[in-house]
Design brief:
- Strands 3-2-4-1-5-6 form a six-stranded mixed sheet, with helices on both faces.
- The chain is 35% helix and 16% strand.
- Strand 2 (91-94), helix 4 (98-107) and strand 3 (113-115) form a beta-alpha-beta unit.
- By secondary structure, the protein is of the alpha/beta class.
- The longest helix has 16 residues, at 69-84.
Length: 192
């Protein structure tokens, strides 16, 4: 390959869609260090199953599908990674479901975890999707731009709000937009 072709091929490879230079800063990580952004995370890995067992109760963790031992470790690792990277959060919010509260508590030991009803799952009641998603958008609109917050919720909530379909333990950095909505800045792997 002659020098001219090589130069063109190398330049085209760097400019190809979906490719990021290895030394380029990750937009999600950069945004997460800024004020007014939030880490929106799906709870860590659970025991096998979909949804919750019949007759589960929100006030009784043993009746719900909960974190597996691997999920508990996943949450601890995610918290350690965030701490190592110096990501600091002023407040931590969670769905009422024990798998979410436990994920948040394991990630941020010693920090208060506040239940935010708009983060509750609507997996079993799809009719609540629009109402709850609107409530969460509205909540983001009231967020003080100087605060950094972490939120732990469910796959259905994240998908409805951002369009991101995350695996258990996955996260996306979000930012309120100027039109009463929320925009996804990018995904982040809080575990490495």
């Amino acid at each position: 390959m002659n020098r001219r072709r090589f130069t063109f091929a190398a330049g085209a490879a760097l400019l190809a869609p979906g490719r990021v230079h290895p030394d380029a800063p990750d937009p999600a990580r950069v945004a997460l260090r800024a004020s007014g952004c939030a880490l929106l995370m799906r709870h860590a890995a659970t025991e096998p199953g979909i949804g919750d067992p019949p007759g589960y109760r929100l006030d009784t963790c043993s009746s719900q599908r909960n974190l597996s031992p691997a999920g508990r470790e996943q949450a601890r690792r995610a918290g350690a990674w965030l701490k190592q990277k110096d990501f600091v959060f002023d407040a931590v919010f969670s769905s009422r479901w024990c798998r979410c509260v436990d994920t948040a508590a394991l990630m941020f030991p010693g920090q208060a975890v506040e239940v935010l009803e708009a983060l509750n799952s609507f997996f079993e009641d799809g009719s609540a999707r629009e109402r709850q998603t609107a409530a969460l958008r509205s909540w983001f609109g009231t967020l003080d731009g100087s605060r950094r917050v972490a939120l732990v919720t469910h796959q259905v909530n994240i998908l409805a709000l951002t369009g991101d379909d995350l695996a258990m333990g996955g996260a996306v950095v979000v930012q309120p937009d100027r039109h009463g909505g929320v925009r996804s800045v990018g995904r982040i792997d809080p575990g490495g």
